[in-house]
Structures are given as structure tokens and as C-alpha cells.
Amino acid sequence: MRIILLGAPGAGKGTQAQFLMNKFGIPQISTGDMLRSAIKAGTEMGIAAKKVMDAGQLVSDDIIIGLVKERISQEDCANGFLLDGFPRTIPQADAMKEANIHVDYCIEFDVPDDVIVDRMGGRRVHPASGRVYHVQYNPPKVEGKDDVTGEELIIRDDDKEETVRSRLSVYHEQTKPLVHYYEQTAASGDCEYFKIDGTKAVEKVSAELEALLSK
Ligand code: AP5
């Protein structure tokens, strides 16, 4: 099962990726998490990426495509994977096609911008696992702590309202065209395309995804 999760920043891709990963036993490939690991490790690429990410812009296609191809070639992706945050531009989607990386499903999370801005202010993350919480809509069992490890949750550097607004405008300009791209891919029979209402409660979105993908 090879799945693309498509949607604006904060639409719930990472939250549902954790659910799908556990449900279907396939790895989550989050380009955002990969970049944040590179930042933490202090690599040259990480240092360059941090400036771009803090400004709410996109990291160059070449870097991202290289990272994803390398990750997909690993053994744990043999039976499928979840792409979370990739592709994000038409050249990234084309690169996947050229590399013969076929996907079975493209799932779009539809959430209006004002809901996104509200959500991001309350997001808390556990960087080591990628688990995501919200202080109000998806709170951890113990305030400020990860449910599994008990470690401290953090606020992402790019969750400031100003940066979120830049990320949303980048989404509309550069990523939204992928909706049409994958609708056309689906029309030619090369994948299935589902659009889901990402404003519903987390568990309702999970249940809808499970129903769609279990068919
Ligand atoms: P990345 O880490 O991929 O961020 P993003 O796509 O902007 O997505 P987010 O992680 O912000 O949101 P999400 O949809 O996963 O939502 P979440 O589940 O956390 O990318 C960061 C940066 O890296 C980019 O800006 C770019 O610079 C760079 N980058 C990454 N990939 C790249 C690429 N391919 N090309 C170029 N550059 C790239 O949910 C958000 C909040 O809402 C949480 O608090 C959650 O608990 C809550 N929530 C989730 N679902 C619901 C719900 N149904 N109801 C209420 N609250 C909910």
C-alpha cells in the first residue's frame, strides 16, 4: 500500500500518518521530520534547510527528491509507505513518476486556512517519534508529555502565526496544483484519489480513512 497524504500545513497529515502506520504496518516518510533530524544533527544540509523552513518556504526540489528516493529504497518500504509532506511541487511529483515510483492512493485533507491557523497555535510534538498533539483537540494524557515515552513535548519553530501564514501561501501557490495533478492521475486509472473533510474530529477522520483503505 503506497499512499500520498496531501494537504495544507496543519491539515492533519502527520496525525493520521501515525494512525495509518499503526493500522496498516507501513512506514511514514515525512520529509519535514527528515529535515528536522538533519537540523538536529547539525549537518550542512540541515543548517541550510533551517533558514528556509523558518521562513516558511520550501527546501529545494533536488535535496528533497534525493532524500525520498534514498528512503524509499530501504527494506522497510518494500510493502508500502506513507508519504507525508512529499511531493509538494509538480517537479517533485514528476521526479517520482520518472523514477517509476507508483502510488496506490492519494488522499487530500481539506481544511480551510482559518482553521489551520487556529490549530497550529496549540500544536505540540514529540520530535523523536513524530507523534503530534494539540492542547485542546488532541491532548496528551499528561500535559506537556509524550504518551509513550513521557518525554517533553515541544513547540515547532515554524508554528508562529506569521510563519504559518507564509507556509499557507506557499501551499496555495506550489502544492495545491498537485490536487489537479493527482485527480488526473486517478482519472487515467493510475491511482485512487480521495478527498476527505479534515475539519472533523481526529477519530472521525481516522475512521473514514480506515473505511476507505480497507475496501
Ligand atoms: P512539514 O513538517 O511537512 O510540515 P507541513 O506539511 O507544513 O505539515 P505539518 O507537519 O505542519 O502539518 P500536518 O498536516 O502534519 O498536521 P498535524 O497532523 O501536525 O514541513 C515543514 C517544512 O519542511 C516546510 O515548510 C518546508 O520548508 C520543508 N519541507 C518539508 N517537506 C518538503 C518538501 N517535500 N519539499 C520542500 N520542502 C519541504 O496537525 C496539526 C495540528 O492540528 C496538531 O496540533 C494536531 O494535533 C491537530 N489536529 C490534527 N488533526 C486534527 C483534527 N481533525 N481536528 C482538530 N485538530 C487536529
Automatic annotation (TrEMBL):
ATP binds at residues 10-15, 123, 132-133, 200. It is found in: Cytoplasm. Pathway: Purine metabolism; AMP biosynthesis via salvage pathway; AMP from ADP: step 1/1. Residues 30-59 are annotated as: NMP. Keywords: ATP-binding, Cytoplasm, Kinase, Nucleotide biosynthesis, Nucleotide-binding, Transferase. Its main location: cytoplasm. GO terms for molecular function: AMP kinase activity. The keyword tRNA-binding does not apply. PROSITE patterns: ADENYLATE_KINASE (PS00113). The keyword Metal-binding does not apply. Gene3D superfamilies: P-loop containing nucleotide triphosphate hydrolases. It comes from the Bacteria. Residues 123-158 form the Adenylate kinase active site lid domain. AMP binds at residues 31, 36, 57-59, 85-88, 92, 156, 167. Its EC number is 2.7.4.3. It is an enzyme of class 2 (transferase). Residues 122-159 are annotated as: LID. InterPro entries: Adenyl_kin_sub (IPR006259), Adenylat/UMP-CMP_kin (IPR000850), Adenylat_kinase_CS (IPR033690), Adenylate_kinase_lid-dom (IPR007862), P-loop_NTPase (IPR027417). Monomer. Belongs to the adenylate kinase family. Catalyzes the reversible transfer of the terminal phosphate group between ATP and AMP. Plays an important role in cellular energy homeostasis and in adenine nucleotide metabolism. Consists of three domains, a large central CORE domain and two small peripheral domains, NMPbind and LID, which undergo movements during catalysis. The LID domain closes over the site of phosphoryl transfer upon ATP binding. Assembling and dissambling the active center during each catalytic cycle provides an effective means to prevent ATP hydrolysis. This is Adenylate kinase. It comes from Glaciecola siphonariae.
